[in-house]
Amino acid sequence: MSDVLGFWAAAMSLAVLALPVAHRFFRRFPDAGAGFAPALGLALVSALYFLLRVADLLPFGRGGYIGAAAIAVVIACAAAGHDRAFVPAVRRAWPAMFAMAGLFAFAFFSFVAYRSYVSYIAGTEQPMDFMYLNATLASPEYPPHDPWLAGERASYYYFGYVQVGVLTALGGAPASTGYGLGLAWTFAAGATGIASLAAALARWNLRRRRRTLVPAAAGLAVVILLGSATMGGAFEAFAAHGRANETLFEAARMEWRISCQVEDRDFCFPGPPGDRATSWYPTESFFGWAFGLTRTIPGTITEFPVFSFLLGDLHPHVTAIPLVILVTGLAVATWRGRRPLDLLVLRRRPFEAIVVALLLGALAFQNAWDVATFSGLFAAAVFARNLRVLPAGRALVGAAGYLLPLGIIAFLAYLPWLLDFSSQASGLRPYAGAGTEPAHAILLFGPVLLPSLALLALLKPRDWRAVVAVAPLTAWLVLLPLGAWVFLARRYDVLDAALDARQAHGWVTLGMYGACVLVLSSAAVALARRRSPLVPLAAVAAGGALLYFGAELLLIRDIFFGSAPRLNTVFKLTYQAWILLSAPAAVAIVLAVARRTAVPGLVAAPGVAAVLVSLVYGIMAVPNRTEGFEARTYLDGLGLLRDVDPAEYAITRWVDAHVPPGDSIVEATGRRWARNPQGELVITEASVDYTDAGRISARTGRQTPIGWYFHEIQWRGATDANGFRFTQRQDLVDRVYTAESPGAALAALAELEADYVVVGRVEQNRYPPGAMPDFDSFLDLRFESGGLKVYAVPFSRRVATS
Amino acid sequence: MSSAPAPAPVTSPRRKSDTPPQPLFAVSLGALLWAAGALLFLLVRVALTWQAPVGGAELVHLSGAWNASIGVSDDRFVATLFQALSAGLLNIEASEVPPRVLAFLATATIPAALWLLRPQLGDGGALLALVLLTFDPLAIHLGVAASAMAFDLPLAIWLFVALARPALPVWAWSALGFLVVTAGALPLTLVLAALVLMGLRRDHAYRRAAYFALPGAIAGLAVAAVGFGLQRPDALVPPFAVLAGNYAEEWSTVTALGGIALYSWPLVLGGGVCAGMLAWRVFNSPEPERDDLLLLAWAGLAFAWLLTSLTAHSTVPVVALTTPLALITGRQLAVALHGMARVDWPRASVFLSVAVLAAGVAAFYVIRWSRVNAAGDTGERLLVIAMVVVALAALAGLALRRETLGALLGVALAVALFPLLSGTFGVGLSGLAEPVPSPVSPLQARELRRLALETARERGGDVVIHATLEEHLTWPFRDSGTIVVAAGLPPGAAVLILPANAPRPEGFDVLEGNWQLLRTVDSPANDGFLRYVKWLVDRSSNPSQPLRVAVYTRSNE
Q1: Which of A18, A205, A299, A591 would bridge A40 by S-S if both were Cys, CB 3.0 to 4.6 A apart?
Q2: Subunit contact A67:B244, Cβ cutoff 8 A
Q3: Are strands A756-759 and A665-666 parallel, antiparallel or unpaired?
Q4: Which of A60, A66, A775, A791 to mutate to test the interface with B (most CBs of B within 10 A)?
Q5: With contact defined as beta carbons under 8 Å apart, do A165 and A174 qualify?
Q6: CA nearest A46: which of A3, A7, A14?
């Protein structure tokens, strides 16, 4: 428990440090930016830590993290001292600040309680996440090394892991506990961020006597962001209890959840139709129904935050939630400001420029998919702000003068990361498939899109005239992606195929999304003329709809292009849309209710219904994932391993404590070997990703010659050279464990430049009995527990002592 | 009517012989007390300089300094100024004594620094602060041991003097800037406190100091980055490197929390109360004094460091806190001691007698239990609880009346005196069973070196040390020519020094003996309250754990 309290205290301390900085940007927000402070504080301290580590000014280990926090203390005090409005703002906003602190604590500890039931770090890509977290903590030099490819630096967007590492180290928790606590922090910081954003948007739009509804808007935004999910959860509830109405399921294109006998596709229920639940919630495996519902659109992933948090992968798109909400808030706050922004503003306020640049750059460093969307949103806000007081040309020049230096600072700040980063994206392509079913679109995205549309009911009749007037101007937002689609389809010679492939339902969905973009963006532009506070709501909602629209037309080509071309594009863009739309959805509902008239209420009703239905998924998935809250609880992500396999746990901890962070360990590649009838050793299973291959390095951050093969290909490119290099490493490692003579094993170890050899449970399972050489006879035994051993590779060197 | 003016008094000039004879020089009581205080401060540190075993952070950093002095790369060389000077001194004589003398000389300036702080702390306050620093066992060791942080304590106090009397020449600030960035982490808390105040209050004097210190700091960083020409360190900023070592390395068997429990709890508790009182006064003052704010900020940041280090195997964060607390406590104590003069002692003595008697009975039983490390039967336990309640009630009786409240200070001082004095003498006289310093390099390790070198010379071949023992052997095996560090058995080995549990290598004979490479003294704070009481009463009762090794020599045939 002390780990949890230490982690929470560290998070709160960084949030408090960020208050003076947050106040500079969010002084017009009801809480003076306190809701964004956890994300802001952690992002800035982590960026500081990263940069100072790269410059060798901070040392390896916990002291380096404490040093970064100490420097942040000085910066925060200077920021507070230079802002005369800060102390009055604290006096004004302290109730809201305390409310945010309370919300953070409630969300954090609630999530910790949930996570204790599913804390084991295993399955899906959690070992990979754990590996990167440990890499940031254990790497003796920065940028951090890649534990799954000895001798190389990490090639991934890993800023989220740096951030969780900062809190883990400051709080004094082991990485295996910090992993779960990092998720809890993300959950809590996401909650406070969206609450702060929604509270500000609601307050600006509510009349004074209706402002008691501000907390309701904040709370609803938290519920929508972190509690709601696909409405498919309600269908699952019926299907699991044998009450599926086939007509309704067919209309919703959800019959695959009744049974594979009704519709055979991925993640359909394999058994016969009927009552399959032994409790009030579905008792089928979480990885069957709950996981399957995030694959509702074939060939894609459509996650939503509640699923991410229940699953427990510490992925970049999850840890980025607080940061993207922060940048969204920054865009809203920027739009709300009065004076135009240009180069001179940067010169006058260099500190703020550096902070903004670090945040915008961090978007790419944390989850590269986010940088275009959210820095684009910020750029749009800067331009819109300038446009209010300047002619279009000067507004554009001013915005460029303001944004360009920020981009340069951001680029330079994160250059050490960029130099090692090899993007898997290789260009924009047209989507040439059937398109999304309208029913799926409504089920999946209705809970955020439908309530957002309630904004339109708040427009006055004269606003509608303005909307119609500006529609030709905003139509380019729809036409441009369409034009790009046609252009790219012609360029890649797939236009005819794409037109043929897209079915009627695909065009309907595209039309739906396009209409949403057009209406919401037109509303934003029309309202901007009279500086209505509804503008940021409409603009952010239009941004969300644009992401859905764009994902129906275009895709980023990546390694999955051959098998599931738009898998990642739909996944990442719809996830961003969910986050973007959460606040407008909540605020629109509250504003509609606050009007107390029939039309807004009626327009908001479908949205409210969608939100209510969407909550079913989470309500059922929580007890499902925790086995009705009867699973064994641990805070340590390796706690289960400690109980189930103490020897394996012991060697893991020994490596963590005794192997120097720069040394390399050899462990099983994950390929399974057996003897064929002729007695020769052959590979019987070559796939190693998503297995326990590389588990010691993942759990300790020590480098191993090769970990998950295909993931390394993903991170570094599917080239022949990489394939050859990685396979060669696998062969060498396997040769160590299957060598016929000590000399052969030692030669392989020398070629791998390895320092230690692990013979743990996985090695015993992957290599057939008798295949392994007698390591005892030629390696230096360092640790043994329950028959599992860690050896050092022999060496000798002459050392002068005088 | 006018009166005649009064005649001027007729005075005859006194003859010189009528005046009392002037002494050749006068010595005030204050000066005497200062001289005694300074002497005591130095005396409790002298023995340590000559006779303490090399241990704890000192062992780590002397090893690093030694390797740096002979050009061998070693990440234990963190390139503080003191460690660089140590390396230089070790080049002259391969002994820990010269660096310790250097550390002692630096620490010996602390009384002078406190003397200069009289305007800020008051005459009595500064003297009492000196007394508190004199009897701070962990500060005693830190100030004399030749660790990389040996300059930290005097530097921190001199830096406070400089900040409290900011009219320093420019070069002095530059020198301080240089010294701070080439020191350990302890002065960092004060620097941070000054920077925090500078940021919050936009203090001109501190800003001026910072500007003038900057060139020195940059020069210091440049020099430290190249390791004073000895060896490039892993981390370029020594205070941060030391901070990291504080968490990552075993500088002490005792953790920071253990250090407080064993040695410093009176200073931390008393200092905490005094800091609270000072904070209250500052909070209610419309124009708080800058020095008060600085002291509080310093103590606050040191406390934050301590909080993050409670489980770290280092006692430096404890000293980092007790140093500002000593300054705060000294000043508050001087005021409070005046209050003791107004105590109604006849009335207070009744309560005090009851409290002492009850506490004495309770202590008698607890000490008896501690001998067998088990609490007595129910009756005894109830008696002890009752006596503790009676003692507390008597103290509450003192606290309830204004005229006896001051007597509580006397109780607090009496309670604090025993652990502080016993700790001071335990550490100052290098008690064998004292957990500070620990782990230590025993004399036997040096004996092992002699034997190994002789054997290797006689039989022809190398002294081979197992890789896991390499770091422990740097200091005792210094100045031993070339040795071989190996995992496995290299050819040409004449003497093998292996972990005690390693299997006997073929072709080698065991060299019989109980070979110790390192000795750690357990922390009695880990084994419960009774164990702690036993240690408090009988400090030699503490067990130590040797790190044994096996020594093999190549068979003759």
Answers
A1: A18
A2: yes
A3: parallel
A4: A66
A5: no
A6: A14
- For residue A657, CA distances in Å to A180, A653, B249 come to 21, 6, 12
pLDDT tens for each residue of A202-237: 999 998 888 889 999 999 999 999 999 999 999 999
The DSSP-derived string for A703-753 is B-S---HHHHHHHH-S-HHHHHHHHHHHHHHHHHHH-SSHHHHHHHHHHHT
Q: Do A620 and A281 form a contact (C-beta atoms < 8 A)?
A: yes
- Assess A801–B contact: CB distance below 8 Å, yes or no: yes
Where does residue A108 rank: exposed (0-12), middle (13-18), buried (19+ CB within 10 A)?
Answer: buried
Omega cis (within 30) before B439? yes
Query: By the 8 A CB rule, do A697 and A667 touch?
Result: yes
Torsion of CA B143, B145, B150, B155, to 10 degrees: 10
User: Tokens 């880990």 belong to which residue?
Assistant: B526
The helix/strand count (H/E) of chain B reads as: 24, 6
pLDDT score at B2: 42
Cα distance between the two ends of chain A:
49
ipTM > 0.90? no
The answer to whether the Cβ–Cβ distance between B240 and A802 falls below 8 Å is no
The CA distance from A69 to the nearest CA of chain B, in Å, is 11
* Sign of the torsion formed by the C-alpha atoms of A690, A691, A695 and A699: positive
Residue A253: pLDDT band with limits 50, 70, 90? very high
In whole angstroms, what is the distance from residue B119 CA to residue B132 CA?
18
Position B557 confidence tier, pLDDT thresholds 50, 70, 90: low
Q: Which residue's entry shows tokens 């709950």?
A: A290
Structure tokens at A420: 């090692």
Q: Which of B465, B475, B552, B551 is nearest to B516 (CA)?
A: B551
| Cα radius of gyration (chain B) | 29
Asked if B263 and B139 touch (Cβ cutoff 8 Å), the reply is no
Please provide the DSSP assignment of B378-425 as one string: HHHHHHHHHHHHHHHHHHHHHHHSHHHHTHHHHHHHHHHHHHHHHHHH
Q: What is the pLDDT of residue B168?
A: 81
Q: Which of B241, B301, B482 sits opposite A800 (nearest CB)?
A: B482
Q: A782 touching B, CB under 8 A? A: yes
3-state secondary structure A38-96: HHHHHHHHHHHHHHHHHCCCCCCCHHHHHHHHHHHHHHHHHHHHCCCCHHHHHHHHHHH
CA–CA gap between residue A720 and residue B208 (Å, rounded): 61
Across chain A, how many H-helices and E-strands are there?
Answer: 35, 9
Cα distance between residue B456 and residue B464, in whole Å = 10
CA distance A350 to A330: 17
